[in-house]
Amino acid sequence: MTWHRTASQWFRLPAERLWDVLERVDRWPEWNPAVGQAAVDGPMREGAAGRYSPSHRLLGPLHRRTAPSFRVSAFEPGRRLALEQPQPGGSQLIEWTLEARDNGTLFTQRVTLDGPLSQQFGLTAGEPLVRDFSTQCARLYRLSSAADDDGDSGALTVVAGGTGFLGTLLAANLVCDGRRVAFLARNPQRSPFEQILWDGRQAGAWSERLGAEAELAVVNLAGVSLDMPGTPENLARLESSRTEPTRALVEASRSWRRPAARWLQQSAVGIYGDSAEEFDERTPPPTAAPGLAAVVRGWEAAVDGANADKLTVFRTGVVLAREAALMNRLTAIARLGGGGPLGSGQQWFSWIHAEDWVRAARAALGLPTAPGEPYVEVPQGVVNATSPHPTQNRELMAHLREYVGVPLGIPAPAGLLRAAATVLRTNPDLALDSVRAVPTVLREAGFAFRYPQLAGAFREMAA
User: Fold this and answer.
1) Are residues 103 and 232 in the same domain?
2) What are 366-406's pLDDT values in tens digits?
3) Is CB count within 10 Å lower at the N or C end of the chain?
4) Are residues 379 and 449 located together in one domain of the fold?
5) Ordered DSSP codes for 267-283
6) Alpha-carbon Rg of the chain, whole angstroms?
């Protein structure tokens, strides 16, 4: 049996700058916080021995006492480094490769465990090493570029709600592209991203700081997770967590010396309500739909009056990625045999792969969708940030069952799902509402989806 994870990130840096950090295995903990200590005995060369231990307070001491040394199984200066460590009945291989591409370097990390206990060791030893790969890469960029990173040139992209899943992905992508990024944070924490203190409610020193920037882009992703029971109190909380930060940003922008060059405002396809009808950006959403649709209407209304040269509102579908919270919840249920259709199974599911969302966000910020790809001029106004092929729930659940390797799944009728949602502390409408949104604006702009079909998105997550 084999457990493996592979992930890649492009850096606007030459390979030798990254290699200077990678070959220093003792610096591994500086860019991967899951590693507590690491060292190679003697000079770095193929066949050299070394040791590493996790930073986890329980697994770290256990690993130091019981784990054998690793061996440098591959050492190609400037290109490839691999560390192989014996495991009971098998081994763990950690491999880093660098490849010159598009005036920069493609960094790839592979972690592979084999043997009869590979799945168990994958959860305890492998998964922590690969978790938050995008943030690992942002740290690696900071370390590799430290010698000539003056930190105060070029446009600043400020992200509200940056500590969430999408904000971290986008910020890390921009940092590795050599761009300045800062988070607006209520409680600044240790991070590879600059953090600017704010309260998310009113203008303050943070707004003066942003107003002094020569060129500014705003990305507003602020808002607590939708994954909570749909009580009136929770719906009010969902709306206020979105509208208050948005109004604070809008108010602050009116005092800036110059408008924000770009403003990317997050919204959601939930504004279209529960319907089997197909919606694109030209279709007016219902004005009286209750629940989550009402929350999103208030969210979008809050951005009115923003001082920006170009304002784009992303009505985003469910974002699919292996580390996304929704995938963790769905895969846990499917592994227990609950991967059958939810409700009727005919309700529409609007989604987008995380990589395509980041590429679309870059386009909305006036950047190439990715290194080596052309510019796509996304017009201002509403944009459905969704795959061009929404799917029905029964197809989603079939892919999910294949993904977790459980061929059969018990269906969950709507009544049972609503009862289970009470226990799971979630909103059943997230699964039972039908939303069929299509990205007409992105397609007409010439945006090319890497993952237009659900099958391709699941293949990427499985890789």
Assistant:
1) no
2) 999 998 898 999 999 999 999 999 999 999 999 999 999 99
3) C
4) yes
5) EEGGGG-S-SSEE-TTS
6) 23
